[in-house]
Design goal:
The chain is built from 11 helices and 8 strands. By secondary structure, it is an alpha/beta fold. The N terminus and C terminus are likely disordered.
Amino acid sequence: MPDHPVSRPHGINDEAAPGSDPYTAYDDFNLPAYVGLPTFQKLPLVTDGAALAARGPDVAIVGAPFDDAVSHRPGARFGPRAIRAASYHAGALNSLQLDVEPFDWLDVVDAGDAPVTPMDIERAHAVIGRKVADVAASGAIPIVLGGDHSITFPSAAAIAARVAPRRLGIVHFDAHADAANATWGNLRSHGTPMRRLIEEGHVDGRNFVQVGLRGYWPGPETVAWMREHQMRSHLMTEIEEHGAEAVVRRAIEEALDGPEVIYLSVDIDVLDPGLAPGTGTPEPGGLLTRELLRAVRQVAGSVELAGMDVVEVSPPFDPAEVTAMAAHRCVLEAISALAARRRASGATPNPTQLHSKP
């Protein structure tokens, strides 16, 4: 380490004086994204529950590297690692869309991965639920990186328990309803988590709102069950006719028709596979990436967000990492929207000021 201090480390776009000292000290947070530990956005790694509780961050990233519940293409177990690595930005960020530097306003950490093991769906779901519960107990909003969509069952259930007696609404972006009773006899597949959440009472069907459904599944029996339980679904045809922003506004209103807080679940296959090919069950005719990112900002910026997940990124099928980048930006857009809300509330900036360390 050099023995001469610097007042503020330069970021990737900061202007350094020509001929400046080549040994200028940069903290790890401001080094290039590909240098150092691959935490989300090079944020501090805080995996211990007691340490999280002592710090009390605003948001914590959680990995759920599990895909034993898929019905088609595997690989989503590698999704959390790919999403974390899918940024070329180092350290401090400035959201041009929201005109906010999110880490000026929020203390965000990476809480590491739930300790899943393969070949045991129930155990994996149990440890994912416990990890999310520990993060939520610290006061942080958990943002969970999947993993297949079955992980929404333990994640959202943990959040519902945390916010009780307040009620939880869910806004769910997906090409598929994921409300089947079973997949080849398995009650915990990635095609069943929404049904499990409703059946176990974690969320009322009428406050489970889906956006972007299309294609040729599920069949009439599942659709009838969804109607019986008053689930609300907005197909791509509705988005085509009325625009994504209007449909998302309606979805938020429906999810909050009684509940006070929202869990946001984003299956990356809600995007058109031409823009997000790296997923297990691609379905043509989906959202544009810009529509999804705007929708995430719209939700996170207008509700009390209690938790979120981004799932079904399968790196083996992801040429040029475009799917992982889309998922990464969904997380950043949510964090930036939360930061903009914090700023608008009149709160003071985040005292840790990670990107301004001397």
